[in-house]
């Protein structure tokens, strides 16, 4: 038996949800990027210590839904609000509480969530304590009795967060093994790594209408020396986007493939042979069947 708590991370895109998960686990599980909408799935990240197991659910950032894909991503975040034992609402220290934040807070209140904590992220980016105090005061006025700050330069802030979360935990059989960091498969992680590397290499040249499909994933689990063979397709919305992703003489897709392969080999602990191709699919972000096929 352990103390168990399912914790949902909620907030606008790019407020530090994935960074929080990675720092709590001390392992890069979720995509971290300066660009919005990099998380597209509810990724479960599992924290273990001797007495507790805390399951963090890293959700897509809630944002204005322009396409069917955007609506689907928002729905994933809303489902987490409803089902989590504790909801953490995240807002960066270097940004004021805006309309997007208030929209999400209203959603939390609509679901009548009692167990909720406001987290001010990126506190290491703000030197002025008055700014932090003002933000904490505003969040308390919006209904959060507990407000905590976290920052990657202050490791103790993450220990303080874990300590507070344990107040909401309950005794139960641990749903996951002690050495398990996530409920995601290697195939899923391969898809996320490819998308992360693509986003980092393409910057804002290609919007987040890019999708990854892992078409083949072959691993000989009985042979640690044989490489994992992965074939994947990057879908974009236009021929012009395809040209950007491929690059001059294939230079960009080669860079993406090389960097993704290196990271996969490090994460999986085995050599990886990665083969990428780029295809155009103009309406995938607004097509129910294609969104499901892409795994969203």
Automatic annotation (TrEMBL):
Positions of the KH type-2 domain: 202-282
Location of the protein in the cell: Cytoplasm; Cell membrane
GO cellular component assignments: cytosol; plasma membrane
Tree of life domain: Bacteria
Region (G2): 37-41
Span list, region G1: 11-18
Pfam families the UniProt entry points to: KH_2, MMR_HSR1
Region G4: start-end pairs: 121-124
Matching Gene3D superfamilies: 3.30.300.20, P-loop containing nucleotide triphosphate hydrolases
Domain Era-type G: 3-171
Membrane topology: Peripheral membrane protein
GO molecular function: GTP binding; GTPase activity; ribosomal small subunit binding; small ribosomal subunit rRNA binding
Alphabetical list of InterPro entries matching this protein: G_ERA_dom, GTP-bd, GTPase_Era-like, KH_dom-like_a/b, KH_dom_type_2, KH_sf_prok-type, P-loop_NTPase, Small_GTP-bd
Region feature (G3): 58-61
Annotated GTP binding sites: 11-18, 58-62, 121-124
SUPFAM superfamilies membership: P-loop containing nucleoside triphosphate hydrolases, Prokaryotic type KH domain (KH-domain type II)
Subunit record text: Monomer.
Role description: An essential GTPase that binds both GDP and GTP, with rapid nucleotide exchange. Plays a role in 16S rRNA processing and 30S ribosomal subunit biogenesis and possibly also in cell cycle regulation and energy metabolism.
Family of the protein in this entry: Belongs to the TRAFAC class TrmE-Era-EngA-EngB-Septin-like GTPase superfamily. Era GTPase family.
Protein name: GTPase Era
High-level lineage: Bacteria, Bacillati, Mycoplasmatota, Mycoplasmoidales, Metamycoplasmataceae
